[in-house]
Each structure stands twice: as C-alpha cells, then as structure tokens.
Specification:
The structure is a single chain. With 199 residues, this protein is an all-alpha fold. It has a domain of 88 residues: Serine Threonine Protein Phosphatase 5, Tetratricopeptide repeat (Alpha Horseshoe), CATH 1.25.40. It is 67% helix and 0% strand.
C-alpha cells in the first residue's frame, strides 16, 4: 500500500508518480538548510550555495498553488530568496508566512534582515515589533530590534531592547562586542552599563 493511500493528506495529486506534498516540503527545507550553511553573513552567495537554494525553490514549484502559498512553503521560499541576496523578492513570501504563522520567529527575523539590507530600517523595526507581539519573550527578536534601533540612532530604544534580551538570555551580552550594528552607540554610557559584567 502506498503512503498516499494511507495518508491522503500528503498527496499533491491523484496521478500516479506524483510526489507527496510533505516530501517536497522536506526536500525543499533540506536544500535550504544545506545552502544556508554555505552562506556567510553579509557576503555574496557562493555558487554551490546558490545551486542548493535554487534546488529548494525548484522543489517548491512542484507544489500545487494552494500548498505553495501555505505558511511553511512561503517561509522556505522567502528564506531561500533571502539567502540568495534577493531581498526584495523575499519580502512577499515572508509576509505571507507571517500572516499564516505569526508565532514563527524566523519569519520576522527574515523580514527584518531583508528590510535592513534594503535600507528600510523603519520597516525592519516594525517587522520585529510585530514579531514581539506574537512572541513577546524572544531574546533574539529583542536583540535584533536593539541592533536596528542603534542603526536608526534611537539609543534609548536600543538599550531597552538590548537589556531585555540580555535579561532573558545572558549569552546575548557576549555578542555585543563584535556586533557592528552597535558601533553608533558603543561609547554611550548606557550601552556600556547594559553590556558590562561586574565580576
């Protein structure tokens, strides 16, 4: 008996040989994960990574339209495009994913990443604020929001969000030393106080 017969919800169609939706999604997610491993932050996407990310998108294209516009497929599509440096193109699928699954932290981080690199800091800040509405105690959202406020010149908001991130997970304090987004406020006494550890 085929998997489609026992799990009809996994089928992407009734024709023989059609790949089940869940398998397509798993393969797309796998190619995405492998591709992202080869991509450095703020560097050009290497050819090997690009091939894997394009393969991820090819898997998604085999899905029926309704499934392709679903939350997980939209997230995978948006993340693949983001990792390829196609930030403007990534916004639509990431926005769709945020509407279907606002609790997914990676959606908001992806949107913030894209908006930041498109020099749309206000949109990046608003995206992470929306993420905090859905997941208010996520230190990574707070930390990235602190970064964006720092770049925007809003020191008070940057310190507030950074302090909250560190209070939830002290490991974020260790990241501040190498984080270039904090360079605009690094010498501010409030930043020094927020990141200083008394031994």
């Amino acid at each position: 008996m085929s998997a489609d017969a026992t799990h009809p919800e996994l089928s992407s169609g009734d024709a023989a040989g059609v790949v089940p939706k869940q398998l397509l999604l798993r393969r797309a997610a796998g190619y995405l994960e492998l591709g992202e491993l080869l991509v450095g932050p703020d560097s050009e996407t290497p050819p090997k990574a690009r091939r894997l990310l394009e393969r991820s998108l090819e898997e998604l294209r085999q899905l029926p339209d309704e499934a392709r516009r679903g939350g997980l497929a939209s997230l995978i599509e948006g993340e693949a495009l983001r990792a390829m440096g196609s930030w403007q193109e990534a916004i639509d699928p990431l926005t769709r994913a945020s509407e279907v699954g606002p609790e997914r932290v990676e959606v908001w981080l992806g949107l913030g990443w894209c908006y930041k690199r498109l020099d749309r800091l206000d949109d990046a800040i608003n995206a992470l604020r929306s993420g905090l509405v859905a997941s208010p105690d996520q230190p990574i959202l707070l930390y990235n929001l602190a970064c964006y406020h720092s770049l925007a010149g809003d020191v008070a908001a940057a310190i507030d969000h950074l302090t909250r991130a560190i209070s939830l997970d002290s490991r974020f304090r260790d990241l501040t030393g190498a984080e270039r987004d904090f360079d605009p406020i690094r010498s501010d006494p409030r930043f020094v106080a927020a990141t200083h550890v008394i031994v």
